[in-house]
Design a protein that fits this description.
Elements (H helix, E strand, L loop, with lengths): L1 E7 L7 H18 L1 H4 L3 E6 L4 H9 L8 E7 L2 H9 L1 H14 L10 E5 L10
Antiparallel strand pairs: 1-3, 1-4, 2-3
Helix pairs in contact: 4-5
Length: 126
């Protein structure tokens, strides 16, 4: 299974409450509506925890400034992900998604990765 992971920082000047509202109530329905064109099988949003524990962990690891959330999208294969760039309907959906992301995400400071997921263990399935 192929997955994209985006470590998201909110757009400068956008407060956390407005960021979370847009991500959940505007972006999530948009990506849900476009999921077939984008060939996405699963999509998960994870909002960053504001608790002190997160900051302590970041400091212990000399980590970068914190992210506001992580977005993950699963695809059946790398070929499916590549085909999104080749198919006109998929490209249009991708452009609509990007236009929305410009409203609430600092894209320049929100790295994205393509990974092949390999589950080592899953206590939920045990």
């Amino acid at each position: 299974m192929i997955k994209t992971i985006m470590c998201i920082r909110r757009k400068p000047g956008l407060n956390r409450k407005d960021f979370e509202h847009h991500w959940k109530n505007v972006h999530a329905p948009l990506i849900t509506r476009l999921r077939e064109e984008l060939r996405i099988l699963r999509y998960v949003q994870s909002n960053a925890n504001e608790e002190t524990v997160s900051e302590v962990l970041r400091q212990q690891r000399n980590g970068p400034t914190k992210f506001d959330g992580i977005g993950q999208a699963w695809f059946a294969s790398l070929n499916d992900l590549v085909e999104v760039a080749n198919d006109p309907a998929s490209r249009a959906a991708l452009e609509a998604l990007r236009e929305d992301e410009l409203n609430f995400i600092d894209l320049e400071n929100s790295p994205m990765f393509v990974v092949e997921e390999e589950t080592v263990f899953d206590a939920v399935q045990l």
